[in-house]
Amino acid sequence: MNKPLPIAIGHSACPHDCPSTCALDVEILENGQIGRLRGAAQNDYTAGVICAKVARYAERIHHAKRLLKPLQRVGEKGGSEWREISWDDALDLIAERFVAAEQKDGSEAVWPYQYAGTMGLVQRDGIHRLRHAKRYSGQFDSICTNMAWSGWFAGAGAMRGSDPREIAKSDCVVIWGTNAVATQVNVMTHAAKARKDRGAKIVVIDIYDNATMKQADLKLKLRPGTDAALACALMHVGFRDGTADRDYLSRYTDDPQGLEAHLQTRTPEWAAAITGLSVEEIEAFAALIGKTPRTFFRLGYGFTRQRNGVVAMHAAMSVPAVYGHWRHEGGGAFHSNSDIFGLDKSEIMGAAYRDPSIRHLDQSRIGAVLTGDREALSGGPPVTAMLIQNTNPANVCPEQRLVRRGLARDDLFVAVHEQFMTDTAKLADLVIPATMFLEHDDIYRGGGQNHIVLGPKLVEPPQTVRTNHFVVEELAKRLGVADRPGFGKSERELIDGLLELSGEPGGYEALKAGRWIDKQPDFATAHFLKGFDWPDGKFRFKPNWQGSMAPNRPPESLGLQGPHGALPEFPDHVELIETTDELHPYRLATSPARQFLNSTFAETGGSRQREGEPALMIHPDDAAREGFRDGAVVTIGNERGEVRVKLQVSYTVKPGVVIHEGLWANDDFLDSEGINTLTGADPVAPFGGAAFHDNRVWLRG
């Protein structure tokens, strides 16, 4: 049988929770389906390269197990019996249950819960318009970016940095705390170009020998949660050896003398004892960046997902300030460009209806919220009705046992709008099928790069699935708020309004013609050569941890988070992590898998085949001491629970460290409990967040 032929190439943007937001070329087949996806060669950040999982997107959008009809639960929660109902009946049911919850306990008893299953600004953020119009409980988005963003902002005062395309112009590329091969392939595209064209050295700093470290010229495999100690030693050497840029320090930083005095005892020997690196490794790295003005620090999220992660990010980004790398093209540092886009989402989000007196609930603490913890509920009523879009909390959130227990409450109504029967959908009362990104209009902006990118509808969805936008609009009609400004508009009209409010001429049609808008600031602005974004223009080695602004500072009702009083005056290593003890001799990190993106793609055959099965990596010395063999089934646990999983004995990890890659579905584990059974939801200082890679555990045969 002949395969359908491509009849057109459509243009879009990857919607998934990855910093790249790749510009895409999509094969449209003669049968109305899609074929291969490729990176747009004309986009100079994507540069024609995308990850393999998105290239195979036809496997996902045309999956045989995709949800296609609304389903209402029959029987007990967690069971497998469902009945098909109409879309009108499903939406009527959600509205009825929301009204009942509000009448019983007030509007805050309803909690719309969402996150980043799509990064499209219309389909992701429109649920807030309904939230604010109805005065439902707010959501404090703490699960992903908070530690990294808070740490960066504490130094720079803004969320931007050197143009990420400058990696290709660097002589030394430092990839710190991000497995870019698996999670942001475009970083490697530009790093490989720098190596080929300029002979650049690639340095990778991480906690295990992952796919990115395998491509490095200098590999620094340190103990989890010790990144700030390495950063301090690098700065110590810069002052000691005279490679610190004292002119830059005096012009652009707040207290270089105080920092130098503080770092007197932060020697390579001191850092070696903490990090597990050798003194020679630290000295070699310091010498390399000391003689290489064009050193580019690409700082990721991974190393900040510790309880001292905010301090780690601030310490790491302090290094290029000490050495003056910011002066040079191909130098400086980059984490996120979130501040450069200037997109006004107020109409999409219904910002005019926001009431600051309405409580916020911490998304990372959904387990505590749904099991009635009074502090987590901010003293308000229990949550008794939810609409969940764009996220899978029964799998991806910490303290999984609490999350699942809360979702299984008989007095809690849960509607899940999804593409597949996820772990969360399995616990719902109602499941309604959602479109995928090529089946609706949306607009994207890439925090890890510099473009606003349009994602127009390219193919027709199955007749029985609906967009996030449709669900929000239909519920607004049933709940009596559809007459308010911002409602009643199509996706394209909202995109036009967004661009107009943001000062981008031409609207949807102009962006469709141009495909993307490059928002990268000029060199001096990006490199902070006009000053950092604090009133005095100085980079802050001495952050005001408690009084500072932050990109996502908790609302007043939640206040400062975690042990904020323990944060250091200057960059330093702080023992806020879950250190090992006699009962818990190992540190566990739950790192990303190459073929999955959070829990997305864990349902597709190609990704599953390439990943194999859930496995726990352990060093051969630890396995021998415990009497474990490769492939053995072990139980890993802590006070939060335990999980049974197969062992993979490998020198990839350090002694005392175990790594589990990927968010497999809970049912893929031997006891149907996923790896986030073991992760904690206690907030990280000072502004919250979940420390997914900071867990002490025990192992038993």
From TrEMBL:
Keyword Iron-sulfur found: yes
Coiled coil regions, renumbered to chain: none
Pfam families: Molybdop_Fe4S4, Molybdopterin, Molydop_binding
Domain 4Fe-4S Mo/W bis-MGD-type: 7-65
SUPFAM superfamilies, per the entry: ADC-like (SSF50692), Formate dehydrogenase/DMSO reductase, domains 1-3 (SSF53706)
Keywords: Iron, Iron-sulfur, Metal-binding
Highest taxon listed in the record's lineage: Bacteria
Record-stated family: Belongs to the prokaryotic molybdopterin-containing oxidoreductase family.
Stored PANTHER family: OXIDOREDUCTASE YYAE-RELATED (PTHR43742:SF6), TRIMETHYLAMINE-N-OXIDE REDUCTASE (PTHR43742)
Protein name: Molybdopterin oxidoreductase family protein
